[in-house]
Amino acid sequence: MLRLSNLTAGYDTVPVIFNISLEVAESELVAIVGSNGAGKSTILKTISGLLKPFSGEIEFLGKKIHKLTPHEIVKLGIAHVPEGRHIFGKMTVKDNLLMGAYTIKDEKKIHKLLQDIYDLFPRLKERENQKSETLSGGEQQMLAIARALMADPKLLLVDEMSLGLMPVMVDKVLETLKKINVEKKVAILLVEQKVQEALEIADRGYVIQTGKIVAADSATALLNSELVRKAYLGL
Ligand SMILES: Nc1ncnc2c1ncn2[C@@H]1O[C@H](COP(=O)(O)OP(=O)(O)OP(=O)(O)O)[C@@H](O)[C@H]1O
Ligand SMILES: [Mg+2]
């Protein structure tokens, strides 16, 4: 579904990710794990068109997308939940959700998407008229994911959803992502510093260190690998 080939990208003229090649298949849940500053967010920003690659290619559903605008990329079916959530605090929960559907013109479809989202996140339905900034951290993260789903994506990019959440909330949000993946068949590319938690729900994973992929395997194999156990799990 998604294929990155030898992608190099960065800021101004300075590359921070080098020759990244990775794939996500239909309905797959793939994790990119690594430490602070490894380049995880940079990979997602390049896929969603916020950054243009210096070299290499990105293909989505058979179409080259690395020269398209973020808007065109959303329309093709890729939605990005950015690091830090970026929800609009002064707006209600419902208005934030409706913003997520900005590429969709069909009112009936928007209504249907909203009902589906409320089925999946009953807490957001209960709070639809509440100002978003008054939600708890976990609820805000759910809202950020829900808003991305309002674009009706085929592929969801999720950046560091664990940030600022207590461990029990991290597990809850990850469970929700797994549910979206399995029940709604939305493919997910997740980036996380919480290596163990992410690999526990993923099908496959990539380990990134200083901008380079240093391991790629099934999530189970990575969890049992010497590299992951030593460098990230402290075992
Ligand atoms: N807007 C920017 N301008 C210049 N350099 C940047 C910018 N954003 C990130 N960088 C640099 O690019 C490198 C990779 O950053 P990136 O945000 O992709 O890391 P990350 O793996 O997402 O880290 P974290 O886990 O802390 O979120 C870092 O060295 C960072 O300082
Ligand atoms: Mg990041």
TrEMBL record:
Q: Which GO terms describe its biological process?
A: L-amino acid transport
Keywords from the UniProt entry:
Amino-acid transport, ATP-binding, Nucleotide-binding, Transport
Annotated GO MF terms = ATP binding; ATP hydrolysis activity; branched-chain amino acid transmembrane transporter activity
Every copy of the ABC transporter domain together lies at 2-235
The lineage's top-level taxon is: Bacteria
Annotated family? Belongs to the ABC transporter superfamily.
Name-wise, this protein is ABC transporter related
